Amino acid sequence: MQGFIVIIGSVARNDFSTSSDIDICRIDCDIQIARKSNWPDGPINIIDYDRNTFNHLFNINSLFIYHILFEGVLIYGDIDEWVKLKSSFILKKNFVEEINDTKELISIFKNIEMFGEHFTSLYSNFFISLKNFSIFYLANKGIYTFNKEQAIKKVFGNYHFNILFDSFNYFERGLSNENLTFSNKEEANDIIQFYLLKMEELS
């Protein structure tokens, strides 16, 4: 298999903002990528797979490989080989194991005391787990979406979404929103409990 470089995420979907990250997957390839003039201003994130790792994920019918193959935009590599990979890939249909694993991981957020009195890291990490749960939950129903905001809102609605998303952007990417505060313990507990209860209802 020849190496490939694939743009994934918001740039591939063309739903990015000016501050969006540029997510790039390199498969059995170490070519450096120069920023394009039409890309957003966010950092470039590189995900590297060697051939064995990619083949393993391909053979276990990984949802993330589906994401790369069918939402990604190939910018380097043999297009005919890429088309063959896409045509031969079979996505798994049952994601109950992934849903349960995410639920087990997310249960640690029941104890908000561990985050002290400032809840930016709580909201940010919780947002990532919510995103993963939502993507797997929808995939288990045959709905494949990898846009974080769309996935979470489709599963859970808009409940305090902005404070979660802005915390993620601040904690993970250094983007701040001065209109939001992250130190209200009662509000933090209310937000976490809402999503945990909703998650139990869904699964």
Detailed description of the structure:
This protein has helices at residues 9-13, 51-59, 63-71, 79-88, 96-106, 120-140, 148-156, 161-173, 185-202; strands spanning 4-8, 22-27, 44-49, 73-76. By secondary structure, it is α+β, with helices and mostly antiparallel strands. The chain has two domains: 4-88, Beta Polymerase, domain 2 (2-Layer Sandwich); 96-202. A four-stranded mixed sheet has the order 3-2-1-4. It is globular, with a radius of gyration of 18 Å. The mean pLDDT is 91.
List the helices and strands and how they pair.
Blueprint: E1 4-8, H1 9-13, E2 22-27, E3 44-49, H2 51-59, H3 63-71, E4 73-76, H4 79-88, H5 96-106, H6 120-140, H7 148-156, H8 161-173, H9 185-202
Parallel strand pairs: 2-3
Antiparallel strand pairs: 1-2, 1-4
Helix pairs in contact: 5-6, 6-7, 6-8
The percent of residues in helical segments reads 40-55%
The amount of beta strand, in percent, is 5-15%
How many structural domains in the coordinates? 2
Order of strands across the main sheet? 3-2-1-4
Order of helices and strands: EHEEHHEHHHHHH
What descriptors fit this protein?
single chain, 203 residues, alpha+beta, Beta Polymerase, domain 2, 2 domains, four-stranded mixed β-sheet, globular
Please sum up the structure shown.
The chain has 203 residues and is of the alpha+beta class.
